[in-house]
Structures are given as structure tokens and as C-alpha cells.
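Re: the request from the purification team.
They wanted to know what the chain is likely to look like in 3D before they choose a buffer screen. I agreed to run a prediction and write the result into the notebook, where they can find it.
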Amino acid sequence: MEERLFDFDGHRELALAQFREVRGLYEDLVETVKRVLRDALTAANVTVHSVEARVKSLDSFANKASKPSPLNLSEPNYRDPLKDITDLAAARVITFLPGVVEQVCRCIESEFVVLEKTDKSEELMDEGRFGYQSIHFLVQMAEDRIRLPEYKRFSGLILELQVRTILQHAWAEMEHDIQYKSASVIPVAIRRRFIALAGMLEIADREFQALQEEDSELRNKARTSVESGYLYGVEITPDSLKAYLDKELGADGRQTDFSYQISAQHLRKLGFASLEQIDECLCGYDNGAVSRALWGNRQGQLSRFEDTLLAAMGEVYATRHPWAKEKTWENIFRERLKKLEKGRIKIGAYDPLLSKDSAIQQA
């Protein structure tokens, strides 16, 4: 008796018709999951590059549904495509750094029922593929949500979740255009370049993580030094400057991070290298009195700081400040110096480039 051939075309059309009926539900699912993920990450104070979500396109689903089994080309790989294909809906969280990936995974595990979790870096390494790394989840909505009327319709639906860094994502996007997927068929010259590029991406990810950790450590060390009053060698950064000014002049919630960044840049141009120099420069000056002499009242934190620097540095400030490149501003600074003199404020000539600490910093 002649063996009956499987009707792949009919299987494809039937699966496609079934998917068309429920695709709208999956579109609602991905939007809901995206919102849940963003809310969970915000609540956990986890910052990521992006949260993306999509539903499988009709063409992509139809092509996958009609694929033959790799074990038996006369049989379909998915007997029940709507049930067997698990990436009908998918979401992806892209992080800036590898250290955040685990934080995102914890959020996912706390918000969803995890059916499966796979580390693709290990799996694909065994297959001889390079560079592509991510954590993959198969999840369902948590039971406590499914009990609510607005989530009940998502009961039993499976969604694929991916978590990876922005560099891993860049590789994955480029990989779509790379023809070779297995190390066993890659020409030797190409294989060497694959390995080198994959290594560079992994090193870059690790270095970005290490840089963030070192930056955080330096920030904490600077704050501790400011709090203890030990300012020698503490580099001027927006963060350390804010800590110093908050302690010496009082905190001012009206100031922005950008304002401290600009002020730190100006201090560098003026020749300052450490907080100790700033402290030395301001020593003996009453910033409140300086502010009242210029404006008739007590100004905000950064204004009082800049005005006191002007008083303590005098002509050095008036000629070296970045804004002094414009003659108008140089004249404004000199007019303010005259006003300070009338207000009986001593005008200094402090030059950070001539201080002992500056020489040590530059050495």
C-alpha cells in the first residue's frame, strides 16, 4: 500500500487560520507584559536600555508551522503549531551592563510563572556558535494576576522573554546577516575572526561593568572623605563637588546634576585639581556676606559659591574663567569685584595653579 504523504500546505493554512483568530489576544498579552515588566523594574530601581515586545508575524508563523521535522522530513516539526510554538509572543529586556541582567532575571522570576529558563551562552557554546549570549525564559502570567478579570483571558498563554546586554543585542542583530552558524563549516580564516570579535564583545561588556563599579567605588570614597573632612587629593567631580558644597554651604534642592557638572568643568578651567584647593581658596570668606554685598540678599548654593570664588581669586578668576573669553563677561566680573570692594569684602588673588596640591596632582 502506498504511503500517504503529509499535506504540508494544508497544515500551514489551517495553522495560519487558527493563529489569525487569536493574534489580537497575543498583541494584548505583549503590551500587558511590557507594562508589567516596566513597572517591576521601576519598583526595583533597575535601569535598563529598553523593553521591547512583539507578536510573531503571520508569515513567520506560517513558515515555522510548516517546517518538516529534522528527524523525519515527511512529518511536520509542529503537529499542533498554536500549542507547540512557544514564541508566538515575545518580549526582550536590553540592559546596559552584564551586572543588571541578574537583577532583571530576579524581577521576571518574581512577576511571572517561569516554565523554563535557559542560558543561551552555554547552550550555543556547546553548538559551536559565537558571541550570541542571552537568558531566555518561557513564562506565563502569575496566578494572582490570572484571578483578576482583566488578566483572566491570558490564562495558559506562553510568552518568551529574553534578557541581554546592549552589546549582546548588537551581535544578535548582526548575526541575522551571517551565513555560517556552526563552527564545523566555517572556513578557518573566518572562524578566527569570529572568535576574535566574540572575545572583544565579551571583554567590552566586562570592562563597562568594571568601569561602573570603579566609578561607584570612587564616588563613595569621595563622599566619605568629604564627610570626614579629609579633602587632600579628592578629585573634583560633579558628585564630589555637590557633597562638599552640601556640607560647607548647606544643601540646595534647587540645583541640578547638570549645574554641578558645569561648575566642575569651570573649576577645572580655573586650575583647580582637588577639593582641598577649593577649601583653601574659600578659607576666611563668609559666603553669605559676599552674596549680600553683590545682590542684597543670600543667593542659592552655587551662586554663593561662584561669587565667593570670584572674591577669593580676584583678577585670576576674572581673566581665567571660561566665560571671560567674551569681553562682556570679563567686564561683568570686574564690575562685581568693584562692588565687592565697596561692600568691604576682601579681594584675594588665589591661584590654584600655584598651590602645593596642584603641583602634586600634576606630578
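For the purification team: Residues 358-363 have pLDDT under 50 and may be disordered.
Please add any questions underneath this entry.
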